[in-house]
Recover the amino acids of this structure.
């Protein structure tokens, strides 16, 4: 039973990471109907940004909560700017082209960030300084570290925060309007370019936060770290219903738990494929994802 | 229908015409003056990039040293031509084919990953160009043909070393193995450990898999913990090993953890205090007071601003052994260099480089105990195990 | 074309291929084909098959499939498995061995057929969800299948696992590669001018309208997947059995699928000629940029990514758009009275 709970906690922590990144995917898709393949790589950039800031602040020698917050804020700010830049330079020119074109552009940006990262940062993995000393709490037979707790707590807070923004603020209303019907939103006086830029900034900031927090728990960072994780997070977003914020959270947790539980069985070698298998199964029965709403197309 | 066929055929014939050239002489790469071209292929991009870059850096350091001290064959400088294979086996073959047929290299250094060595090796064998792999540990690499050599351990040997140490020295009877299913090094080493440990009479629990690039191992470690092994092997490379060790300790696992030479790398320090009670088999130790090793570590550090890892040391040795063979055969012709390589006996950074009849080196392995102090990993010598 | 002319034209094609193959393998007199260029030409041929087959789904049917590498893997591994474990027996039935050119060609036939069939079954599995899934969702499912296939292969020791299928016997040669490339082009072109093709174009333009017009969209989409997958499987079988070119699950991942997509996008989605042009260009380009790579390692791939983005921004229809190669102007000139032959 101990093992079951331990695996449950493990699955939640892993799932929380996927959820954080999935939230960004789902927001951008909701507004632009674009699968931002580069999102996983923004997560990687966030980790690297945090790495450089943390080293500049000499965090390895003096770890502190305040420093950790500063690093996270810094990384989020940098990635928000990067997100806006990507949108402005790569996605806006192709916004009115067919979907396939924007998709391929997104793939191009993703490749650019990955290979560019290998050139600029070098391919060798770096290690992130320990900003908060690791503490293990043993509850019953279950071990959980403070970093894992942090990740889970932060993603839940972020999810509620996002829901609040989207449903209770004006900018959120603008986002919803833009995702519903862009041309009409424009007619209604909404500055859609600003809304889109804002969405990207927000999503990228979230990915950056995810990157820094993950680097806390697992300090190894390299330019290709966003590839697989980003892909699985995207699967999580689709699983929960793309465009749906609680869905992204749910999807992330599900994928994390499934992966952990399969990893614990004799089929552990197939772990990577689990996310996709789960996705395909669910999509067969609920084509719009678990919490997704099917949009009936008017002819 | 016809127009497309015609189009394709005529384009191909045109291409064939362009690609036509006079046959070269029988020993393709004999040159008598000027720079000696030596080819190297490795992963400079893609998921194998960190090891590929290390191996290239080691080789570059060796070539620089050799050129600065007068070059080979009466003052001729070595020109190291490096090609990227993007971590793909088919690209590796492309790169090697180009190096041999276009650049007419005397010999080829590479690759680190066995799967890429296995892919491109046949090309070297076909064109009678010696190939020296710095770090491919799969047995089958040198079995490709008599032009293929290596300067590293082979999996069976290292597995034997580790299994014996665990059984005899640590008195382990039931062990768990974590293998990186994406790295043939890890898969091969795992099989070797299973075989030897089983022969010694111990029990090896079914290996548990992870993938390079994985960041979270709590799930599999929890399962392993539940099976209560006496020791655990982690047969992959240092980026994951560091994290696995840390997470294992976080889960309260205090058993000894063992690994192979793949653990040696800068990023191992991620493991921090968790590295206590860990052991690795190695051929290379940065702490080895032998001047050959110390000189290498110093010059590498000065040139690249980093501590060298085991792969860099092997790249260095591969280049050195090739240089020795060229010198002793007094030639740049493939078959003659090959014969000289087969008889090579050179003191390398990673041990004595003497080719056995299978074109592998019989180096003893050392077992080192790991410790973390002053922000760095310390490798403490424990024992030596000789090949039998 | 009359049956007699058809037979002659096929015979001529085969003869030309065989002759070229001989030159590639053995050269003539004092000359030979530089092995490096020969290898690139062979790779171009394989990529042509891949690109043109993908064009069937992405270009003609307008579906978005990013799992082509999976079909290549299934077909490739099946074909290679057959040759490695049963090739000798098959060759012996005909009194030949695997090492002589005729023997290896004889084994190639069942090998490729097996690969094509296996990949076709995979195509069936992927095509069927298309009943309920559209657009982006279908894309993700194709990606998912391709990754699942990859992970399964990674765990099968009999075909090499992570090391790759290095036991493969190199029976692929120029003849087979370009025969299959031409066959793929012929098949796709024929589909394009048939009722089947017209249904695909209708689906591409507006799936709902096509359904309303009575076209069984699922049936045609599944057929497109099956045929496309079978051809990709053939490409896989050819690729895996090329000298020094073992199949490896690590490299039959979604990055590989994307590379094939870029080929058809570069040439122009929907155009067979475009796919050929794209495949050729993108096989040659990384090799041509090698010297650049010497100076600035890693920059080559960065430039590749940048080119992709710029291409999408400035010329999303690719080099040829939807246009095809049209040699009818040659025949037009031959007619004295100025009338045009179709």
């Amino acid at each position: 039973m101990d093992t079951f709970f331990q695996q449950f906690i493990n699955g939640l922590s892993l799932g929380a990471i996927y959820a954080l990144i999935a939230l960004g995917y789902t927001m951008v898709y909701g507004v632009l109907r674009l699968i931002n393949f580069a999102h996983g790589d923004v997560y990687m950039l966030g980790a690297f940004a945090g790495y450089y800031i943390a080293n500049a602040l000499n965090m390895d020698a003096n770890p502190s909560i305040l420093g950790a917050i500063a690093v996270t804020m810094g990384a989020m700010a940098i990635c928000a700017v990067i997100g806006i830049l990507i949108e402005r330079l790569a996605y806006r020119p192709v916004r009115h082209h067919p979907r396939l074109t924007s998709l391929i552009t997104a793939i191009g940006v993703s490749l650019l960030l990955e290979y560019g990262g290998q050139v600029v940062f070098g391919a060798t993995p770096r290690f992130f300084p320990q900003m908060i000393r690791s503490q293990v709490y043993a509850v019953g037979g279950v071990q959980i570290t403070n970093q894992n707790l942090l990740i889970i707590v932060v993603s839940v807070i972020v999810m509620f925060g996002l829901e609040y923004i989207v449903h209770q603020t004006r900018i959120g209303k603008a986002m919803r309007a833009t995702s519903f019907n862009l041309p009409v939103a424009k007619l209604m006086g909404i500055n859609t370019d600003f809304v889109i830029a804002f969405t990207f900034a927000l999503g990228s900031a979230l990915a950056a936060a995810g990157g820094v927090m993950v680097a806390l728990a697992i300090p190894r960072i390299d330019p290709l770290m966003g590839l697989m994780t980003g892909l699985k997070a995207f699967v999580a977003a689709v699983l929960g219903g793309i465009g749906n914020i609680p869905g992204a959270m749910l999807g992330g947790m599900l994928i994390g738990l499934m992966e952990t539980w399969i990893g614990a069985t004799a089929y552990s070698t197939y772990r990577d494929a689990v996310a996709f298998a789960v996705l395909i199964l669910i999509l067969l029965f609920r084509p719009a994802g678990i919490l997704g709403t099917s949009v009936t197309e008017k002819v | 229908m016809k127009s497309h066929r015609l189009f394709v055929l005529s384009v191909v014939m045109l291409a064939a015409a362009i690609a036509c050239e006079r046959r070269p002489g029988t020993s393709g790469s004999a040159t008598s003056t000027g720079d000696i071209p030596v080819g190297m292929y490795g992963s400079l991009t893609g998921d194998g990039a960190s090891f590929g870059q290390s191996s290239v850096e080691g080789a570059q350091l060796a070539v620089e040293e050799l050129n600065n001290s007068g070059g080979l064959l009466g003052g001729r400088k070595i020109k190291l031509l490096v090609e990227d294979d993007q971590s793909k086996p088919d690209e590796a073959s492309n790169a090697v084919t180009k190096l041999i047929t276009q650049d007419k290299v005397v010999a080829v250094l590479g690759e680190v990953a066995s799967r890429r060595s296995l892919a491109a090796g046949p090309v070297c064998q076909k064109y009678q160009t010696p190939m020296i792999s710095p770090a491919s540990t799969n047995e089958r690499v040198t079995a490709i043909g008599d032009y293929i050599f290596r300067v590293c351990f082979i999996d069976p040997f290292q597995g034997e070393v580790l299994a014996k140490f665990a059984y005899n020295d640590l008195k382990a009877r039931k062990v768990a193995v974590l293998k990186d299913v994406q790295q043939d090094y890890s898969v091969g080493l795992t099989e070797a450990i299973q075989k030897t440990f089983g022969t010694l009479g111990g029990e090896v629990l079914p290996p548990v898999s992870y993938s390079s690039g994985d960041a979270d191992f709590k799930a599999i470690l929890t399962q392993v913990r539940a099976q209560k092994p006496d020791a655990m092997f982690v047969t992959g490379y240092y980026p994951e090993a560091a994290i696995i060790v840390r997470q294992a300790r976080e889960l309260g696992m205090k058993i000894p953890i063992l690994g192979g030479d793949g653990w040696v790398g800068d990023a191992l320090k991620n493991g921090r205090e968790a590295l206590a009670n860990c052991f690795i088999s190695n051929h290379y130790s940065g702490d080895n007071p032998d001047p050959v090793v110390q000189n290498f570590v110093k010059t590498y550090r000065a040139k690249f601003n980093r501590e060298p890892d085991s792969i860099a040391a092997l790249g260095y040795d591969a280049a050195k052994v090739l240089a020795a063979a060229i010198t002793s055969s007094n030639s740049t012709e493939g078959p003659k260099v090959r014969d000289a390589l087969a008889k090579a006996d050179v003191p390398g950074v990673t041990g004595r480089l003497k080719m056995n009849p299978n074109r592998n080196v019989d180096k003893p392995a050392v077992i080192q105990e790991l410790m973390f102090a002053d922000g760095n990993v310390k490798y403490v010598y424990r024992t030596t195990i000789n090949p039998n | 074309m009359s049956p007699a002319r058809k037979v002659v034209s096929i015979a001529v094609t085969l003869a030309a291929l065989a002759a070229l193959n001989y030159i590639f393998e053995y050269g003539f007199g004092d000359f030979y084909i530089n092995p490096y260029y020969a290898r690139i030409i062979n790779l171009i041929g394989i990529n042509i098959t891949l690109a043109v087959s993908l064009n069937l789904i992405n270009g003609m049917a307008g579906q978005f499939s990013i799992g082509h590498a999976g079909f290549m893997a299934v077909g490739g591994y099946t074909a290679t498995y057959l040759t490695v474990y049963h090739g000798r027996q098959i060759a012996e039935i005909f009194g030949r061995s695997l090492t002589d050119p005729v023997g290896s060609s004889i084994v190639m036939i069942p090998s490729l057929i097996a690969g094509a069939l296996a990949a076709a079954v995979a195509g069936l599995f992927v095509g069927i969800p298309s009943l309920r899934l559209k657009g982006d969702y279908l894309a993700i499912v194709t990606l998912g299948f391709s990754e699942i296939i990859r992970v399964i292969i990674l765990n099968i020791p009999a075909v090499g696992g992570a090391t790759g299928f290095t036991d493969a016997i190199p029976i692929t040669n120029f003849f087979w590669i370009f025969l299959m490339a031409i066959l793929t082009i012929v098949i796709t072109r024929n589909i394009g001018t048939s009722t089947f093709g017209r249904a695909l174009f209708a689906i591409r333009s507006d799936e709902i309208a096509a359904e309303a017009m009575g076209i069984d969209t699922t049936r045609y989409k599944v057929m497109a997947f099956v045929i496309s997958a079978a051809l990709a499987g053939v490409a896989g079988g050819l690729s895996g059995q090329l000298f020094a070119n073992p199949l490896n699950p690590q490299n039959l991942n979604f990055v590989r699928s994307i590379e094939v997509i870029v080929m058809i996008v570069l040439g122009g989605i929907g155009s067979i000629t475009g796919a050929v042009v794209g495949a050729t260009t993108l096989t040659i380009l990384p090799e041509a940029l090698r010297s650049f790579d010497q100076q600035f390692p890693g920059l080559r791939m960065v430039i590749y990514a940048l080119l992709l983005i710029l291409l999408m921004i400035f010329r999303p229809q690719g080099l040829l758009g939807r246009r095809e190669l049209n040699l009818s102007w040659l025949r037009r000139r031959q007619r004295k009275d100025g009338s045009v032959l179709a």
About this structure: The beta strands of chain A are 126-127, 136-139, 142-145, 220-221.
